[in-house]
Structure formats: structure tokens, C-alpha cells
Specification:
With about 210 residues, this protein is α/β, with parallel strands linked by helices. Helix content is about 35%, strand content about 15%. The protein has helices spanning about 5-20, 35-45, 90-95, 110-115, 145-150, 165-180, 185-200; strands at about 55, 60, 85, 105-110, 125, 135, 140-145, 155-160, 210-214. The strands form three sheets. A four-stranded mixed sheet has the order 1-5-8-9, sandwiched between helices. Strand 6 and strand 7 form a beta hairpin. Helix 1 runs parallel beside helix 6 (about 165-180) and helix 6 (about 165-180) crosses helix 7 (about 185-200). The longest helix is centred in the first third of the chain and has 16 residues, at about 5-20. The protein starts with 6 loop residues before the first helix and ends with a strand. About 35% of the residues are buried.
Length: about 210
């Protein structure tokens, strides 16, 4: 068991990189084995020049309780911010192992993200399944990636509420970036993209799970 490849994600990142380049916006891309937990953490924690935009195209996970996926160590932890996160390079090597003491295992948890400084970041896009989910605590809301990135200081979040298909997710994201970076306000770019995807795909599972959290 483990995390399956997402071929559409690499194309998605490259296309978004091209869109950024066309607009004269410098971008750093971490693909395949370069997308390690250490590399991502260096951006989140160590860079003095914080990014204006962060885009993650990968697997995401969110377990609301400790009853599921007993072979995945993080699913069994009590802290809900440790039961949700993003999958990075090398995660399959640690799948099923107890890596509590070894944090560099390819899993970037919401708990770790809360300690970063992303003040000034206009957008964090989480092109990952279930990235908008988390454990719900009465009167306290959702404990997941959305809360973590907001605590870190991100202004806006683009999230998925369920398991979105690889190809359609890439299509949604690239359409959104084209509209936004060519001048549409972020909210307008989002709703135009959602409307276009709705007209193209009858199945709402291909587009309706994306939300913009401002």
C-alpha cells in the first residue's frame, strides 16, 4: 500500500510555471524526487524572502478520527493537526512505519505548517484530495490544512473538499491561474473557472469540490 503516482500533477505544475513565466513572475518548481519535505520546509521556514504564491499538486489526507487506516501512522495520532497533511517525495518509503521521531519522512502535517511564516502570501493552492477537510471540534471549527495555513498567515486558500480526479484537477487549476494572472480578481477568476468546468462536465465530482477560502 502507499501513494500512487499523479501524472496530471506534473503537467499541472509545468503549465502553471509557463503561465507565471509569461506574466514575468519568477517561480521555483520542485518536481518528483526534488519535492522533499526538507526542500519544502526550507521555503516555509528558512527563506527570508517569503513566497507570494504557493502551489501544491500532490496527494492530501485528512482523517477525522483515529479509527481508519491503521497501517498509516499519522492516522492514529491524537492531535487532529497531525492526522491531516500533504504527501511529498519519499513518503512511500515510510508508509506503514512509525516515524514519529523522524519528521523528515515525506509527510508534511498541518501541525508543522502552523509553525511557518507565510504572512504576505496572497494564495496557497492545495491541488490535493481532501485538502479542505479535517477533524471538526464543537465550537472550534475544522482542524486541518485550511486552519494551519491561515494560522501561518496565508491570505487566501484554494482547496478541495473531496478526492478530485487527476486530469480535471489540473484543468481546473490551469484555467484559474490563466484568468487570475491575466487580470481577473481572484474571486472572479475562481467563479469563472468553476462555471466553465460545470458547463463542460456534467459530473459535479470533477469540479464542485474546489473552494476558495478568503
Amino acid at each position: 500500500a502507499g501513494w500512487l503516482p499523479l501524472p496530471g500533477s506534473k503537467d499541472e505544475v509545468r503549465q502553471i510555471g509557463q503561465i507565471l513565466e509569461q506574466q514575468g513572475i519568477p517561480a521555483r518548481m520542485l518536481l518528483d524526487s526534488a519535492a522533499t519535505e526538507a526542500a519544502v520546509k526550507s521555503i516555509l521556514f528558512e527563506q527570508s524572502d517569503k513566497p507570494d504564491l504557493l502551489h501544491f499538486a500532490t496527494h492530501g489526507f485528512a482523517f477525522s478520527d483515529t479509527s481508519a487506516q491503521p497501517r498509516f501512522h499519522y492516522a492514529l495520532l491524537q492531535n487532529p493537526l497531525l492526522r491531516t497533511g500533504l504527501v511529498l517525495a519519499g513518503a512511500n518509503q515510510s508508509y506503514g512505519a512509525n516515524t514519529e521521531e523522524n519528521r523528515e519522512d515525506g509527510i508534511l502535517t498541518a501541525f508543522e505548517i502552523t509553525g511557518s511564516n507565510l504572512y504576505g502570501a496572497r494564495l496557497v493552492a492545495l491541488s490535493a484530495c481532501n485538502s479542505g477537510l479535517g477533524a471538526i471540534r464543537q465550537e472550534e471549527g475544522v482542524f486541518g490544512l485550511s486552519r494551519a495555513f491561515k494560522i501561518a498567515g496565508a491570505q487566501n486558500l484554494l482547496l478541495s473538499l473531496w478526492e478530485a480526479p487527476d486530469a480535471e484537477t489540473a484543468e481546473f487549476m490551469t484555467q484559474f491561474y490563466r484568468r487570475w494572472l491575466k487580470g481577473d480578481p481572484m474571486r472572479e477568476a475562481f467563479w469563472k473557472t468553476r462555471s466553465a468546468m460545470r458547463k463542460k462536465y456534467e459530473d459535479p465530482g470533477k469540479w464542485a469540490g474546489f473552494v476558495l477560502l478568503e
